[in-house]
Amino acid sequence: MTAGGPTGEVTAGNLVIDGEDLVGDATFGTARIGRDASTLDQADGARGEPGRFGLQAGSIEVRGVRSHARSATGGDFGLKGLRLGVGIDGDTCSP
Q1: What confidence tens digit (pLDDT) does each residue in 60-74 have?
Q2: What is the DSSP string of the chain?
Q3: What is the pTM of this model?
């Protein structure tokens, strides 16, 4: 999934990402980095697996973001220029 860039900003509220990495230029507000993921408490109903790395923040602004995520949920998303491809082993599925 890709979005943003020249088409406009991507926005989200109450975002929870289950992922491997996050790359970009970031500004965090009230960040808590390295907590046990099962103790995260800023997003209602979202807890990670015990013993896994956790990061939560009251706010975050990321520019030029790239991420490999298994899931992302949020209260609201604004995705300008969305492109979504679904595939197996990196190949795009055809109808």
Answers
A1: 888 888 888 888 887
A2: -B--GGG--EEEES-EEEEEEEEEEEEEES-EEEEEGGG--SSTT----TTSEEEE-SEEEEEEEEEEEEEEE-SEEEETT-B---EETTEEP--
A3: 0.67
